[in-house]
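> call design_seq(struct)
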């Protein structure tokens, strides 16, 4: 099983919107749909909020046989209204190519 982790900044003043529009959507309003999309993508996702003095970040982890492909599947199948919210909260241009994926630089077990 492979893992992918990434940190995504939350734009200043957008943390409450992130909590309401994304986390509430994934954990309450549309949990079954969010979970189903991750299952379809072949990944187990965990989402963390990292609050820092220099800004807040979302830390995502994806575990599965091919977490990079799973992440791509989730992004390609995101409902348009959710894409707009992600763009507003994180500053992503959802029509542009995605940024490069993180690179593993240290592994204590390898």
């Amino acid at each position: 099983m492979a893992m992918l982790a990434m940190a995504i900044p939350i734009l200043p003043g957008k943390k409450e919107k992130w909590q309401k529009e994304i986390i509430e959507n994934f954990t309450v309003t549309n949990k079954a749909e969010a979970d189903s999309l991750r299952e379809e993508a072949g990944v187990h996702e965990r989402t963390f909020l990292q609050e820092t003095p220099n800004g807040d970040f979302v830390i995502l982890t994806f575990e599965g046989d091919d977490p990079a492909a799973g992440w791509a599947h989730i992004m390609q199948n995101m409902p348009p209204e959710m894409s707009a919210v992600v763009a507003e909260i994180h500053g992503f241009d959802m029509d542009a190519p995605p940024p490069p994926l993180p690179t593993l630089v240290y592994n204590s077990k390898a």
